Amino acid sequence: MSVSPAVPSTHASRPQRGWYKRNEIAITPWLFLLPAMIFFAVYVIIPIGQSFWISLHEWDGLGEKTWVGTANYERLLGWGDANVDRKFSVSFWNNLKWLVLYLLAIPAGLFIALFLNQTVTGIRFYKSMFFFPFVISQVVVGLVFSWFYLPREGLLNAILGFFGAGPINVLGDPTLATYGIIAAGLWPQTAYCMILYLTGLNAVDPEQVEAARLDGAKGHKMLWYVILPQLKPATFIAFVVTIIGALRSFDLISVMTNGGPFGSTRVLSFYMFEESLSEFGFRMGYGAAIAVVLFFIMLGFITYFLYAMYQDEKGAH
Amino acid sequence: MFPTPLAKTSRTWQISYQVLLPVMLIIWLLPLIAVANFSIKPESDFVNGNYWGIPSSFEAFSNYGRVFFESNMPRYLWNSLFITIPTVIGAVALSAMAGFALGVYKFKGNLLIFFIFIAGNFVPFQILMVPVRDLTLSLNLYDTKTGLVLFHIAFQTGFCTLFMRNFIRALPFPLIEAARVEGIAEWKIFLYVVLPLMKPALAALAVLIFTFIWNDYFWAVVLTQGPDAQPVTAGITEFNSQFRAAYHLMSAGSIVAALPPVAMFFLMQKHFIAGLTLGAVK
């Protein structure tokens, strides 16, 4: 003891550390999370609950809310003796069309990606030009395609005329209009899927490809058994963004047909907007009920996506 | 590499490929090329039915000039800029912090909060529309740029946090531990250790959010009206009624509206694609 060097003991002389300092590791994450959490709660999480609440009322957005219970849903879905709202069923079926047809963006994107996955001069330019439609606003895409479809002067009819077909009025025809809009939407969506697959193809293991080649695999067999399994992460993301894109479709419909002709191109997201903010009056409660239905459709997919991601997280630890 | 590299294929396929590339590209971009062509035509071409042919005279300067000097276009562009830039800064800042918290610390509820951010990011806009509009009205922010900015920051934080957190996860954790051993305060670790390493992620997100917000239409329609606060996406539809059937001016306007994100994309292509394809390779 007596030979201990005359160095002041840092431990004893250090002043009692503050409460914050002692709990720093526990508190810091919450301080860092707080701003994002507050913003997200106020503008995203709480409004979801509020929409449920509003959907049980009749409300013009200004005055008092009148409690109507499930009346909005009854009218919407045709529960009890009411008939299902025809505009709702049209929107719902159109949403299904969007969901199914929009998925075509995935094989189309894969096809273009395979086509462009070469190393020739200028290929980078081609890749970015093919991606181009995705960078443009959907509003502009909508305008561009409305002109493309113009009944007399449109480029589409000019091309059809060249082959001796047409003319057709895509956006004026209730049976065709929705498909016309979906085709416009597929344009940027395919570009996005293409870029996902190009990135995925970049990471494909060349040794496996070579090994498979030595085993005599080529063409579609190689694609199916060797390449596609390795592209699974890209396919998953393509699937997620395409489904969400399909259910969110609003801009194109609003710009290209505004729901017409005769309401034939409405989808749930558009119908909801129309009910809540139309010139015929603000039926917020009814609109909220439509939004809730759309939310539940989306929720099915979200749950699946999160489940898949959760499995992934577990695998990572 | 798949498909087979071109160099190892037959001569005929090599030549056809080189020919096919530009042909496919022109077909792919045909609607856009048509609009670009529209935008440099004189009005008389439309009257005479020369829609798709070569412009009879080159009127790009007068068309684009009219867009800039005889319409509200400059105001809409200005609004878009004042909506987009604060949103980018806000969303990136908030999510960098949140991503740091979720990526570096172990605490109860970490994964739950992370998943709430992801789930919220997938939600259809319509479920938020009525309450958010109501909130904006009651804050006296309806038809203001601030109202839009606040909402956009909040909503984009979902996606950005997902991105940031995964990026931080992939950083070498021993760096942070070393800093802790040195006794550096946690917030300083964020500022001086983690943030500099996150530059690529910050850049990727900034470009992406810029494009997303610039191109937003739905919230612009829900939360604003008129040229005081409306961004260019909503403005262009207004424009539509001003120049009904004046395709040459509408096309020029559309091109002007589309240009900033396009420029952003070509300038920052690497970051942009890195952001969009996050997780596509793993």
UniProtKB/TrEMBL annotation, chain A:
Compartments (UniProt record): Cell membrane
Entry keyword annotation includes tRNA-binding: no
Keyword Calcium: no
Gene Ontology CC annotations of this record: plasma membrane
Membrane topology reported for the UniProt record: Multi-pass membrane protein
Keywords: Cell membrane, Membrane, Transmembrane, Transmembrane helix, Transport
CDD domains per record: TM_PBP2 (cd06261)
PROSITE patterns, sorted: ABC_TM1
Gene Ontology biological process terms in this record: transmembrane transport
Tree of life domain: Bacteria
Transmembrane segments: 25-46, 98-117, 129-150, 176-201, 222-247, 286-307
Family: Belongs to the binding-protein-dependent transport system permease family.
Name recorded for this polypeptide: Sugar ABC transporter permease
TrEMBL record, chain B:
Topology term for the membrane: Multi-pass membrane protein
Subcellular localization: Cell membrane
Annotated transmembrane regions: 20-40, 76-104, 111-129, 149-168, 189-214, 245-267
Main location: membrane
InterPro entries referenced in this protein's UniProt entry, alphabetically: MetI-like, MetI-like_sf
ABC transmembrane type-1 domain boundaries: 77-268
Entry's Gene Ontology BP terms: transmembrane transport
Family of the protein in this entry: Belongs to the binding-protein-dependent transport system permease family.
Protein name: Carbohydrate ABC transporter permease
Protein source organism: Yoonia algicola
